[in-house]
Amino acid sequence: WVRKRPSSDVDIVCSESNPEIIASKIHGAIVGKPPQQIVTKRMKEHLVEIIPMRGMCIEDDLRHRDFTINAMAADINGEIIDPFGGVRDVESNTLRLVPAPVLPYEDDPVRVLRLLRFASFLGYTIEEETRERTVNFIKNNSDRIRAIPKERLGKEFINGFAHKPFDFLKLIEDYNLLPLILPEVEALRGVKQSPIHHPEGDVLAHTFLTLHEAQSVIRQNDDQTSDIVLGLAALLHDIGKPASTGIHPKLDRISFFGHESAGMQIASKMITPWAMPEEIRTSVLHLINHHMQPSQTFTERTAVKLIRRIGAENAKLLFVLALCDARGSSGEVGSIVGARAIFEGVMDNLVRAESAQQNKSQRLLNGNEVMEMLNLKPGPGIAQILEDLDVATGCGTLQTKEDALLWLKAYS
Question: What is the 3-state secondary structure (H, E, C) of the chain?
Fold first, then answer.
């Protein structure tokens, strides 16, 4: 209401203090653990959160909130209740802690991260006293911050990386939170790279630049899921480099053989406890594991393998990540642009050929058809034939099932 922008969030404060009673009356679900339990209920297009009131009145409840812009309410007549100047702070684009006897972070340390997420997403200024109290809390409560539940940490990162991931990470760095909540990323600090390919400096500096490029793409996009995937993949794409550092035996320079697969394993251990949707987690790991392919030797066969292994949409996003990666270092994007042209040609040919079939199957011929025609038994040879079939289709040589049958007869 204050910002005059549409919102899908509906939060209701209820005078009933027992979440179980609230849930039983509206057939809702209890989420969280005491004392932060809430009740959720899907109502039409909205997911409504019902929060038991803390204190004897709404003003007491609002005093337990984190920031003044979140410490406002409206009664059933639409009149705004604003005991701490939240409207004023919204109008001045300011983030300010609720004035309360107990620092809001003491009640819930994840609020530190929420402050930085709000600042990056909204573009608000953090008020000076709030900044000082936040810095002091972080300095004196490192163990409590490290102990923030992973699923709550993940929720903040998913929300933050869907909008302005670079700005969010920069604030995390500025407030000395990186070693506490992202030690795997902090480990990139000081990891040297070849100055020829990475004149920007160590791996952490490169990660920040890659994330900055990704944020530029996200601002132009309207697909939140792909934004989150791109942001997280940009953050973690080189996370395997510290464990893969070595000297190239022929070129006598720093190299990182296998850092893609090492990074995928590290990232998997890191983000799986974040309890994000499986679709997002899998896509992020795919992009990390394959992020070097667009800048290496790229052929129609490479394109086919990518499409079959990680899916067309992830493959498209992989090229976006590769361009962000290149622009965050030496800036050489020629090979990536060429690889993308090959990929798009193969993708167009596959889609055209497969969509023309009545059953809309993935290939012009399936494995059973290949085995029957060539009188073969199941085995790795069938997979090779199907891959060769995909390559021929991707190159435009085969366009119909009849083409594929003739091709298979001549296959040797």
Answer: CCCCCCCCEEEEEECCCCHHHHHHHHCCEEECCCCCCEEEEEECCEEEEEEECCCCCHHHHHHCCCEHHHCCEECCCCCEECCCCHHHHHHCCEECECCCCCCHHHHCCCHHHHHHHHHHHHCCEECHHHHHHHHHHHHHCHHHHHCCCHHHHHHHHHHHHCCCHHHHHHHHHHCCCHHHHCHHHHCCCCCCCCCCCCCCCCHHHHHHHHHHHHHHHHHCCCCHHHHHHHHHHHHHCCCCCHHHCEECCCCCCEECCCHHHHHHHHHHHHHHHHCCCHHHHHHHHHHHHHCCHHHCCCCHHHHHHHHHHHCHHHHHHHHHHHHHHHHCCCCCCHHHHHHHHHHHHHHHHHHHHHHCCCCCCCCCCCHHHHHHHHCCCCCHHHHHHHHHHHHHHHCCCCCCHHHHHHHHHHCC
